Amino acid sequence: MPDSAATGGLPRIRRAGVPAAVWLVVLLQVTVCLLQTAVFPNGRSPDEAKQVDLVVQVAEGTAWPWPSPGTLATTAGVRAGAVLPPDRLHGAAHLADRDFRPRGERPSWAQAGGAAPWLADGAPLNNQLVQHPPLYYVLGAAVVQAVPGWHDLPFDRVWMVLRWVNILLAAPLPLLAWATARRLRLPDPLPLAAAGAVVAIPELTHIASSVNNDNLLVLLGAAATWLVARVLTGDHTARTALALGGVTSLALATKGFALLLPAWVAAAYAAAWWHGRRTRGSAHGTLAASLWALAAMLPGLSWWARNLVLFGALQPHGTHADQGYLQSGERYTWADGGAAWLHRLVDRLITLFFVQDQAAHLRHDASWWASRAGLAALAVGIGVALVRGPLRRLDALVLLAPAAALTAIVAKGSYEQFVAFRNLGAAQQGRYLYLAVVAIVVVAVAGAVRARRWAPAIVLVLGLGLHAAFQADAWAVLWLPEGPGSPAAIGAAAGAMVRLHPFGWAALGPAAIVTTAGLAVATAVAVSQIRRRGA
């Protein structure tokens, strides 16, 4: 039953263990991510080289205490872990045609230059990631320092260990999606479909298999979503309030997008008060719980107050000591290409939420069309849920509020870059919405309540289609040898992946076997749900 009164007359919350099918989805999340580490070589994820660099610099002490904006140069040593440039590719890489050094002979961080600056066009390459709070990088540094003799090991191994830790950070996402849907009383098998929907988003598994502070933020955002669901369903206890405030504080110590979370928590408690306004004592309990949550947020909020005091900006730009750089120089207006900027913003947010355009060619290829199919599925589910779904409309709107706020924040930041530099494509990453991914998929699957037996099968088919299109694009851009495609070319690409991977078939073989078996079981589960009669 609920943890407090004020449930708005909804049925009791069922308490039961986590079904085996959900643990299967969690296992699939992990193994799919493990396989992604082979498909995308080190450094082929957004800002991954600089993420690893900052982790290593914290481990070395060169970035601790936290450096000021515009003062940190990327180290030369981090180049040892990658075989491709970290920025966009200007054509297919054809990695299957390349020879790779034997694993034991690959350069270490120290051999590649260690802490010496990485020079680009004769100047040190800045690391702008110091604009973020330090929590993720401190945790990563602890992992690096736990690897014996990491300075002199082949650095691709150290990089891969960091990737594995990020996979573990993302592993609870399906479980949290299931728990959130369950807490919101979505009927079975919709919670299972919500868990599967997380794994069905290829770019989310891509980011989860790389070194990126998004992974810690997304985990904390998913945990906050589950706790908000508890608040919306009547849990006004101090324990839950402190947990929600503590998770928010950790998110605030991870990345700037978390600045929307305090307002979201306030909205959740306001909605909970509205639901229980006719219940005796509910208003007092809701107010007390919200104050507990606010108190627990204060440590995380203090970082942003520090920025205002030291730099005069809530989130400083990492490559500029002068935070007024956006207001200097020529100013562009909407007439200078605003419509083109808006078109690209919408295109990139949709595409890069679902897939990753490795070459940034903006082609309407299979993965581009697959992302539109994914958007259509989400839009239909959310629309139905808001009109006639099982969720109270106010609860659904509260759950979707972070996605809307994140979209507005991304659009504002990108437009500022357009006005200052006439940059049509700055900061247009769909992955920036992943802080709200659990809330998005839970509300979307709620729209399938009248066809709920089909929901796991729909998610499975959509996920397989998205991943197939995503992999086809990635293999073509990164791995396939020159010449016409053929089964032999695919085999050559797969063999090259195994040769380049720091741990080879010993790490990839079990993941491939488990993923294949897991998909077979998932198909059987989906079919069994369709054949069931009744709720």
From TrEMBL:
<feature type="transmembrane region" description="Helical">
    <location>
        <begin position="431"/>
        <end position="449"/>
    </location>
</feature>
<keyword id="KW-0812">Transmembrane</keyword>
<feature type="transmembrane region" description="Helical">
    <location>
        <begin position="20"/>
        <end position="40"/>
    </location>
</feature>
<feature type="transmembrane region" description="Helical">
    <location>
        <begin position="161"/>
        <end position="178"/>
    </location>
</feature>
<feature type="transmembrane region" description="Helical">
    <location>
        <begin position="394"/>
        <end position="411"/>
    </location>
</feature>
<feature type="transmembrane region" description="Helical">
    <location>
        <begin position="215"/>
        <end position="232"/>
    </location>
</feature>
<keyword id="KW-0472">Membrane</keyword>
<feature type="transmembrane region" description="Helical">
    <location>
        <begin position="505"/>
        <end position="527"/>
    </location>
</feature>
<feature type="transmembrane region" description="Helical">
    <location>
        <begin position="456"/>
        <end position="478"/>
    </location>
</feature>
<protein>
    <recommendedName>
        <fullName>DUF2142 domain-containing protein</fullName>
    </recommendedName>
</protein>
<feature type="transmembrane region" description="Helical">
    <location>
        <begin position="369"/>
        <end position="387"/>
    </location>
</feature>
<keyword id="KW-1133">Transmembrane helix</keyword>
<feature type="transmembrane region" description="Helical">
    <location>
        <begin position="252"/>
        <end position="274"/>
    </location>
</feature>
<feature type="transmembrane region" description="Helical">
    <location>
        <begin position="286"/>
        <end position="305"/>
    </location>
</feature>
